[in-house]
Sequence to fold (224 residues):
Amino acid sequence: AAGVIQSPRHLIKEKRETATLKCYPIPRHDTVYWYQQGPGQDPQFLISFYEKMQSDKGSIPDRFSAQQFSDYHSELNMSSLELGDSALYFCASSFSSAEAFFGQGTRLTVV
Amino acid sequence: GQNIDQPTEMTATEGAIVQINCTYQTSGFNGLFWYQQHAGEAPTFLSYNVLDGLEEKGRFSSFLSRSKGYSYLLLKELQMKDSASYLCAVRDYRGNAGNMLTFGGGTRLMVKP
Fold:
C-alpha cells in the first residue's frame, strides 16, 4: 500500500540558507500535518492543511511557510535557517476521521 | 487548545504488563490515538478510540473515557522491542477547517530483562 512519502530524507544546510521539504500524502487523504521533532522531544505541531486549505497553525516560526498544491502534495519552506532548526520534520496524512499515517521524516541539519 | 498529559518515563520488566495513562482537555474531541515511536523513526499507529470502552489489538489494548478525559494504553507480555516512546494524540474537530491532531509529551518506556 502507498505510504506518505517525504523528500529529501536527509538535508544539510548552512545558517541563513533556505530549505524546502516535500511531502506526498497517501492518495485520497484530505488532511496533511507537519511536525517538528527535536532530539528527545515529542512532535511539535507546525501547520496543517485540509483539502488544500490551511486549517491550523501551531508553533511555526514566521521564517517558515507551507502550502499544499492541487495534486495534494505539500511543501514546507524554511528560510534564514538557524542552528536550532536542526530536527526531524515529519509529515502525516489522514482521511477525515481515520488515523494519521506518518512519513519517514526529513532530518534537517543546520551547520 | 488542548492539554495532553502523560508520564514522562516508565520502566517495566520483560513479560510483564504496563499501563500508560493519558489525560486530556479539548473542546471538539474527535478521537484519541496512540502511536509508538522508536528513536529517530516515524511514529507508527497503534490504536484509535472515539467511543468509550476498550479496544484490543493483540498485545496492545487502549481504553477511553470521554467524560473523564482519560485514556490508557495497556501493553501485555512485554518484549524488549517494546522499549520506545508512546505518544498519546488527540484529534480536535474544527468544522470546515477539518481536524487537528495534537500530541502529548510522550512516555518513554524502558523494558528490562
